[in-house]
Design goal:
Rossmann fold; about 350 residues; 2 domains; about 15% strand; alpha/beta; about 35% helix
Length: about 350
């Protein structure tokens, strides 16, 4: 992929931090889209090719937390997205669409909700956040595709509820273990219900421990503000193996590899984090609850369901639909997987639907 322009932006004018974007211009375009993910690099996103040739300029923006999940604070990302929207407004674009792909969906929903009505003054860890409404211009629409509802809600479905000791990665309650053949698949409704309760209880235990630790640190003579910790076993969603749960056209397993190896390995979502980052992005106190955020916005929404997705399943897509109501235009992209890898037809289809919708705003 060739990049037309590399964009360098000060998040707070004259102060930083500095973030970077890749801009691909469409000829004589007055409509622009911005695509962003909280920590991944979307410079080579497939829409960098698909949108500009259909008349929509595209800015792929990296946040200050590029490849830095352990320290990510969503409340600061609001300012990062604002810098990208400001840049496009200053370049004279009449219409700006926020693109929410995968984890970018809750990111842009959070941004737009605050751009329309600024409410946030601190993080869930209690640290002050100085957002300025003048730095957060509103966009004109939001397009969602392969959109899970937010990192905290994704983890809630994936975290291993069978862990009995956070200090022992191998501790297990066999009656809650989705990897034990005697439990399934197929999994009974009673078993799934028990697993879901255990997952929520584990998430809340970690959050309560995190709050206590933050209070201890911040009341100590050293007045330490943060520290790191590990969350073991975060890849244990029964839906990975039982396709009758939240059914669509997906294959068993998940897109990043063998769930068992990921679950017990050193690398998966939320594995390494800090106290403050856990509260902001992984805990149920996170403000990046995509459907709740988008319900507070007023702009039109395009919602695309990828029918073979392993990461954003029908119940996730329905959460967006319920939150948006009659502001939504909805399409299913048949047999589309989460990242549309080796699916050029689906990529063209997504590019065409998003471009057509954006240009009609």
């Amino acid at each position: 992929m060739s990049i037309s322009e590399l964009v360098s932006l000060d998040v707070i004018p004259g102060r930083g931090p500095r973030i970077y974007g890749a801009l691909r211009r469409a000829v004589n375009s007055k409509c622009a889209a911005l695509i962003v993910h909280p920590s991944s690099n979307f410079f080579d996103h497939y829409l960098m090719e698909e949108l500009p040739k259909r008349g929509v300029t595209l800015l792929a923006l990296n946040t200050r937390y590029l490849n830095n999940d352990p320290h990510l604070i969503f409340e600061h990302i609001i300012d990062d997205v604002g810098a990208g929207v400001r840049y496009l407004r200053e370049k004279g674009f009449d219409k700006i669409v926020l693109l929410g792909n995968s984890g970018g969906a809750s990111t842009v929903a959070l941004y737009q909700s605050e751009a329309e009505n600024l409410t946030i003054t601190d993080t869930p860890a209690g640290d002050p956040v100085r957002l300025n409404a003048e730095n957060l211009p509103s966009a004109d629409g939001i397009a969602l595709f392969g959109a899970h509802p937010g990192r905290a809600l994704l983890l809630l479905k994936w975290i291993d509820g069978s862990v009995t000791d956070e200090n022992d990665p191998l501790s297990v309650d066999n009656s809650l273990d989705i990897f034990k053949p005697e439990n399934g698949p197929p999994f009974t409704p009673q078993f799934v219900s028990k697993v879901r309760r255990a997952q929520q209880e584990r998430s809340e235990r970690i959050s309560n421990r995190t709050r206590r630790r933050l209070q201890t640190l911040r009341s100590s003579p050293e007045n330490a503000r943060d520290e790191a910790f590990i969350v073991h076993r975060t890849c244990a969603d029964p839906r990975f193996f039982d396709l009758s749960l939240d059914p669509n056209d997906r294959e068993p397993g998940m897109i990043w590899g063998d769930p068992y190896r990921l679950n017990y390995g050193p690398r998966d979502i939320a594995r390494f984090t800090t106290l403050t980052s856990w509260m902001s992005q992984w805990s149920l106190a996170s403000r990046a609850h995509g459907p709740d955020c988008i319900a507070r916005t007023t702009v039109p929404v395009l919602n695309l369901e990828f029918t073979a997705d392993t990461n954003a399943l029908p119940s996730d897509i329905a959460m967006w639909t319920d939150a948006v109501g009659d502001r939504q235009e909805f399409h299913r992209i048949k047999d589309a997987t989460h990242f549309l890898i080796d699916q050029p037809k689906a990529r063209r289809n997504v590019g065409e639907v998003i471009s057509d919708w954006s240009l009609k705003l």
